[in-house]
Amino acid sequence: MSFTWPALLLALVLLPVTALVLWGLERRRERTAQAFADAHLLGSVLRPASRAHRRWPLALQLLALGVLLFAAARPVALLPLPVNKAAVVLAIDTSRSMLASDLNPNRLEAARAIALEFVNLAPPSTQIGLTSFSDVATVLVPPTTDRERLREAISQLKIAQNTSLASAVVTGVRMLPGRKDVRPPEELTPRMFSLPDVQPSTPPTLQPEKMPPGAILIISDGVNNTSSNPEISASDGLRIATRFASQWKVRVYTVGVGREGGAIMQLNGQNYFVPFEPRTLQTLAQETDGKYTYAPSREALREVFAELGTVIRWEPTRTEVSALLSGVALILLVLAGALNLHWQRRVP
């Protein structure tokens, strides 16, 4: 256990001081009664209660004070809390082809809008990660329930160079809970991944069927024109990555951004034809039991979460327990007052 304000623990010295003050006041009341009351009426003046009837309420009050003073230091404890281990990784294409203006104002802005809508529709307990990809995939936000962090990262996406869909798939798989130590396919070189902790081999204890459910949502124009391994074409690399996702029980959902027939884009004073290739995205989704959508509706985006499901597991989580302790102190005070009212017909 740790404390946000540990200096306030010094306030606990008030506990014995308060006990001494209360004991002194009780002794003073007894001496005053003995000094001024007639000896024959002393019993009526003092009406002494049993020791248990006096001490139990007082002990509960002092305990409540101690709990409140302890809570003032804002203790933080590791408590087992339910956590939804189901997660989705958003993979957004940031290659130059996403600057094509066949969607208003361009493909990247359309992808950004879809990603933000997806985050807004997500159930609060579902973890969402974010990666952008061009020549390589870059982890921007590990899976989290912090929606504001995701929105900020999405708003700051920048255009890069070419497109490697294989990099997006493999990096997305390794971002998902339980799959961090999974080794990427041998055919793909490690330099394509932004995750630096590549293991020499996948630990034998990792079993795909026991992994929490995970999915990747790729938002792209489908152009796939680069591979990290010069000996493997971009299409072959994507096929390898697709098998990798299926092996580790990860569904890949894809969203196409662009228009049939492609677009002409001007870059550095020259015109370039930028294709829109939905078939690549359709094949990727089909072979991983995912789905491809174009111009997705809110219902289509919600379907990703519905098919993902929920897996609740108890995990130790750092949690401030001040409110919990304050509630305990309140219960103790109420109990002390009830005992006083019952035994001595008064509430201190």
Automatic annotation (TrEMBL):
The chain crosses the membrane at residues 6-25, 56-73, 323-343. Keywords: Cell membrane, Membrane, Transmembrane, Transmembrane helix. This is VWFA-related Acidobacterial domain protein. NCBIfam families: two_anch (TIGR02226). It comes from Calidithermus roseus. The lineage of its organism: Bacteria, Thermotogati, Deinococcota, Deinococci, Thermales. Residues 87-308 form the VWFA domain. The keyword Cell membrane applies. The keyword Transmembrane helix applies. Gene3D superfamilies: von Willebrand factor, type A domain. InterPro entries: Aerotolerance_reg_N (IPR024163), Double_TM_dom (IPR011933), UPF0353/GerABKA_families (IPR050768), VWF_A (IPR002035), vWFA_dom_sf (IPR036465).
